[in-house]
Amino acid sequence: MKKLLVLGGAKAQVPLIQAAKREGYYVVLCDWTTTNPGIALCDKHYQVSTLDLDAVLKVADVEKPDGVVSNSEPAMYNVAACAEHCGVVGNPKEAIEILQSKCGFRHFQKKAGLYCPTAFETDNLKEAVCQLRELHFPIVVKPSESSGSRGTTVLKQYNAEQFAQAFVQCSKFSVHDKVTVEEYVPMPTLKNIEGDIFVHNGIILWHGLMTTLRSATLPFVPNVSYLPINESENDLQIIKKDMESIIRRLGIRHGEYNVEAFFTKDKNFFVIEINARQGGNALPSLVEDSSGVDMSRLLVTTAVGDNAYFDTVVQNKLPEISITQYLVFSHKAGIYRGLNIDPSICDRVYQNTAIVDADTPIDVGKNASDVLARLRLRFSTKEEQANVANHLDELIYPVVE
User: Fold this and answer.
1) pTM
2) What is the CATH classification number for the domain harbouring 30?
3) Does 18 share its domain with 76?
4) Is the pLDDT reported for residue 150 higher than 90?
């Protein structure tokens, strides 16, 4: 029986544990709590922090797992370190370290000759103010190690009070208190390329790439995602070429990666970030709804050296069902009373997941953690899907009093 070590037993890791159990694997879990839902599903639980590398390695020495996985971003460096320690499928620690640092990734891009803005990183406000002279405004202030665009702020011009406020806010969201400041690259439209890609045995699977749209009032968070990706063949080749170049140069060998990118007004392809984890907001299941590819199954099976499912995905022609995911945010504060769904779109909605209960006080949506509801819609054609995508905020919206 294959043995899989999973770092983290929170709700986000439950699909990994469930996928492993369906394969008949013995699941060992590291989770510092005694209450997370994954604990009840695993075969053996060690109450250790996924961020405590020494403790995780001690567990690995006792259990001798055939593979190590997680989809918790802070734990991904320790996944790589533990896989290396155990001699199982994994990635270079240095590669994960670069991907987890927003500034480190910018320096990597620049060294590789890829398009990216000038950036610096620091945990000292005074030092940051001094280094601002190296940049041209507008700028973006963001946590160096975080996700979901938490704290990210755009400043069009220098204002000492606003910069200090943004810096302090971002440092609170950053794992090691470091803040990245970079020149702002404007999006010519609110359309981006995002999604999850999968890497294994020198092959990249692109089934999880998707087109996303963002709200003008919340430009850092995608709120409409649709599969299959809706880009020209020429642009798609550029997307794959540049992302593959990054993966190869970093020496990435395995895993699922959440990507975010767009074409600038000058048609430069700008990779905003590549996260060493599955995408949030249930993106793996969205990919499965469209293509039939079970990303969690891919991750756990290949991690333990079982390539049967991976080979099946590579060798077979897969469906391309037109699926849209819509994340509902509020543009005003008040009491959330629920959703208004236009009758003309009701028959397209096949999943409506409430994230916030009705009659709950809410604030204006600022980042990915402020989602009120997640809906999925199925369309018969790509054309209908694309047309509706531009009007979803008129057809489905929160009622806030």
Assistant:
1) 0.92
2) 3.40.50.20
3) yes
4) no
